[in-house]
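Ticket #4471: complex job returned nothing on first submit. Input attached below:
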Amino acid sequence: MAEMKAQRNAYGEALAELAEERKDIVVMDADLAHATMTSIFADKYPDRFFNAGIAEQNLMGMACGMARTGLTVFASTFAMFGAGRAYEIVRNAVCYSKSNVKIALSHSGLCVGEDGGSHQCLEDIALMRILPGMKVIVPCDWVEVKKAVRAAAAVDGPVYLRIARPPVPAITDESTPFEIGKANVLRDGKDVAIITCGLIAHEALKAADILKEQGVDAAVINMHTIKPLDTEIIMKYAHKCGKIVTAEEHLLAGGLGSAVAEAIIGKANPKFAMVGVNDTFGRSGKPDELFAAFGIDSKAIVEKCKSLL
Amino acid sequence: MEKSELKAKAQEFRKEIIDMLFASKSGHPGGSLSCVELISAVYNKMKIDPKNPNWEERDRFVLSKGHAAPTLYCVLADYGYFPKEDLINLRQITSHLQGHPDNKKTPGVDMCTGSLGQGISSATGMALGAKYAKKDYKVYTVLGDGELQEGLVWEASMAAAHYKLDNLTVIIDNNGLQIDGSNDKVMSLGNLRAKFDAFGYKTFVVDGHDFDEINAALDAEVKGCPKCIIAKTVKGKGVSFMEDNFGWHGKVIGPDDYKAAMAELEVK
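Support reply: We reran it on our side without changes. The output follows.
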């Protein structure tokens, strides 16, 4: 297994790496540069880094104004505040005006850990994917974050990047392809297809291992782009396996599972189940403990898969 | 443009605003009429090329009080960004003239606005972008006074001072009224000049219907900090029964109102 690293560190590194060739990139933060790791960029390019202070609405509003002067702006803070508090500004300033702002929010999901429910954003995928014109990327590991930053910068228009806090092992490598809107099959299988994103891809692979020991051949699909969604691969596995389980670190309502359900309804009829957080807020704890407590770990995925067999 | 011409144009704009709002059977007469002189005076100073609306070196204008879109549209049409005939189709499904400004649809509109507080925030970002790129263009934004109740206005103001944006001019259309009544009744604004000064602006207070006073404030040299112009205005200015009457914030202009308003505006 590849090197352990936090997605947020890879995000800061990717920005600093890309900045050399992309002179149009500037980065903004809201007093969390040392947590979102935009500080890596800021240290290298202090003239291209702008702090909005603890003012997330203004972070998004200013990012939009800067983008309208021809810059490619990466705006970062925690998911809770960027997707939550600043939501209407993201909607009306960034998306409605079609501005070239990349909203890269770290500390998403339960893996925020000890800070607890007030800081664990489990709604962001839903909030961001329903905005017209917004692309939504949820990388599965730090290697994919680096590719996603580059791909997002190449898009003209708003992109949401969901970034996670804790160091985790990489499950992809440099050779794994990354194209916005095109999912990757991490493992092929014929009995059930697990469609996943973000850190839960790691849990899905563990689940597939467990299922293998029990004689169940599970496919694992990394749906790193929630919007535009790779419906082709969903259809392929709906027909191939006849059973789909989605798994994500997000509320059941509105996230990856909902997006997949929207894609298949009326077009395919696989047995279908969703793994996610069921209509509740998070709590303090360690990421692994929380994944287990809220039923989104490998064990929960195994059980959900078996319920369809 | 000379003062006499600006005054004559302002009168024409008021008639066009009433025409547009009567035709659309919706929109915001009061706050559109109060900022006619402000927006026309700003455009008179701006470095623009209507034939090339996206000219990189242009000055930018952001109508933070986006509900006064009819006023902006009259001025833009007057400068030739689009035909004057378009004005009458304001808010119609076939029109590029949206209820609130939309940079995707209307030539000359620099930013989608209408969600209060957002315009000044985006204008601040534009001014910061100009500083970063070492460009010498200026950014102007007009806010309503009720809009100042939005926290985002003060977030943006803090940033404008922090980044020493002396290329940013924030103009307050201070007509004293908002949808539910007077500012004082709904949510007191307190000492606005002291507030803007405290946030790091160089603040000017002017009569917002007097071109001499507006021009003097627009021309005043300010270095190292953003400029704020608090313009004392009358909501509904130019139509007696709309003046200083919060009921005309977003009221539909009926046929009798239309006749009465136009009769007054023809005489003046």
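Chain B touches chain A at residues 56, 62, 102-104, 110-112, 114-115, 117-118, 120-130, 132-133, 135, 151-152, 155-156, 158-159, 162-163 (CB under 8 Å). Closing as resolved unless it happens again.
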